[in-house]
Amino acid sequence: MKLSRPVRAAQSETIIALIDVVFFLLVFFMLIGRMDATAPFEVRPPMAQSGRDMPAGGVTLAVAANGSLALDGDEISTQDLATALTSQLTQQPDLRLRINAHRATELRHVLPYVTQAEQLGVRDVVLVVTPERDE
């Protein structure tokens, strides 16, 4: 009796080798590619200084959630702010401005006051923040 071997079906190509190649290419491009655009010069971000005592001296600009302003506790209009800061700068050329904004105030409403103060000649602007509590 002669036994014949069963005829095997042609093996389909496995994709295991293809998956290995794809992962190799992925790792290769991740290692040589830039993940973000870098500046052509060195950039060192500022260090946060929360938890330290607020610097003394200068004036405090308070910004309410509705946009109202107060300079050293006295309400002031946006138009009168430049005049008041210019007056303070004539008395103190190295004036420090602390900006204390309500937590609900968006930063885009606060930054114009920083720009305005810098244009007037204020060189030291401090944004007052409350650090998060670790609970």
Automatic annotation (TrEMBL):
Record GO terms (molecular function): transmembrane transporter activity
Top-rank taxon: Bacteria
InterPro entries the record matches: ExbD
Keywords, sorted A to Z: Cell membrane, Membrane, Protein transport, Transmembrane, Transmembrane helix, Transport
Cellular component per GO, a single term: plasma membrane
Transmembrane segment boundaries: 15-32
One Pfam family linked to the record: ExbD
Gene Ontology terms: biological process: protein transport
Major place of residence: membrane
Annotated localization: Cell membrane
Membrane topology recorded in Swiss-Prot or TrEMBL: Single-pass membrane protein; Single-pass type II membrane protein
Family statement drawn from the similarity comment of this UniProt entry: Belongs to the ExbD/TolR family.
The protein's name in its UniProt record: Biopolymer transporter ExbD
Naturally occurring in which organism (per UniProt): Parasedimentitalea maritima
High-level lineage: Bacteria, Pseudomonadati, Pseudomonadota, Alphaproteobacteria, Rhodobacterales
